[in-house]
Amino acid sequence: MMFSVRHLGFGYGSRRIFHGVNLDLPTGSICGVLGVNGAGKSTLLKCLNRILEPDKGDITLKGRDIRSMGRRHIARSIAYVPQSSSATPLTVFDTVLLGRKPYIKWGPSAHDMDLVETLLTTMDLSHLALRPTHMLSGGELQKVTIARALAQEPDLILMDEPTSSLDLKNQIAVMTLIHKTVSQETMSAVVTMHDLNQAFRYADYFLMLKEGRVHAFCPKKEVTPEMIGEVYGVEVLFEQIQNHTVVVPRERPSPGERRRAFKIAVG
After folding, report:
1. What is the pLDDT of residues 139-165, one digit of tens each?
2. What are the extents of the domains in the chain?
3. Closest C-alpha to 56, from 5, 1, 15
4. Which is nearest to 62 in space by CA: 44, 79, 78?
5. Which tens digits make up the pLDDT trace of 189-239?
6. Are residues 21 and 58 in contact, defined by beta-carbon separation less than 8 angstroms?
7. Angle CA(50)–CA(152)–CA(126) in degrees, nearest 5?
8. CB under 8 Å to 267, separation ≥6 — which residues?
9. How many helices (H) and strands (E) does the chain have?
């Protein structure tokens, strides 16, 4: 198994954020992490690469406990894309090149430079290569952050709502790239998502958090409307459009409609 988590727990003092998190993610798979605001999704990602230290449980990547890895090894193995990144005077090219830092000793190699150029082209950022990142829009900066993470050539990429600041076209472009990269390379991804329809389009597995616990972890095909309703407190329907599952909130009848239905039922 590429990536495994066992009995993971974390809290701030006496306040527990989550506990008992278990998951197994094969190579070439995307796990969508779902849950309401405050469910612990972002905190979980930070624990998975030791930005925060879990107080319980084990995390293994390619059979190795990440606690035994040095920071340089973790940086080569796990990439992290936060919800938002800080802009700097560095150019777009140099910012993406920072993703190669765990591999660079004396200076960037031809491979490092070629990889950055390829990613800038793929992410439609070439025309911004020499622009300082503090002169970018929020969506452009997010694409640069994702490109920098991919430059690390990691085994695992952790992404915290990676498309939240992107328009529809760039949401599709970025998630299609992530899906293609993960499926073609020897890597996996854990992605927190608020857009359920995006999750159903791109994720292979779902990890659903509720009140600090794992409500469900399963392949996408095993997810039911009842699971979504239990996690979000909203009744939903699943519809199929162009071979994609679409989540539709179930409309509740108005008080007048309920009264009419009651009168019909009782005669």
Report:
1. 899 899 999 999 999 999 999 999 888
2. 3-266
3. 5
4. 78
5. 999 999 999 999 999 999 999 998 999 999 999 999 999 999 999 999 999
6. no
7. 135
8. none
9. 9, 12
Of 140, 149, 150, nearest to 184 by C-alpha is 150
| Whole-number Cα distances in Å, 154 to 13, 99, 222 | 32, 10, 28
Ramachandran sector of residue 115 (left: φ over 0; alpha: ψ -120 to 50; beta: rest)? alpha
Which residues, at least 6 apart from 48, have a Cβ–Cβ distance to it below 8 Å?
Answer: 5, 59, 78, 156, 158, 190
120: left (phi over 0), alpha (psi -120 to 50) or beta: alpha
Give the predicted TM-score (pTM) of the model: 0.88
The CATH architecture assigned to 3-266 reads: 3-Layer(aba) Sandwich (3.40)
Report the alpha-carbon distance of residue 173 to residue 190 in Å, rounded.
18
Q: Provide the angle, in degrees to the nearest 10, between the axes of the packed helices 138-151 and 168-184.
A: 10
Task: Report the candidate in 167, 160, 124 with the shortest Cα–Cα distance to residue 144.
Answer: 124
Q: Locate 194 and state its tokens.
A: 């608020």
**Torsion-angle region of 75 (φ positive above 0: left; ψ -120 to 50: alpha; else: beta):** alpha
Cite the beta strand spans of the chain per DSSP E: 3-12, 15-25, 30-34, 56-61, 64-65, 78-81, 156-160, 188-192, 205-210, 213-219, 236-241, 244-249
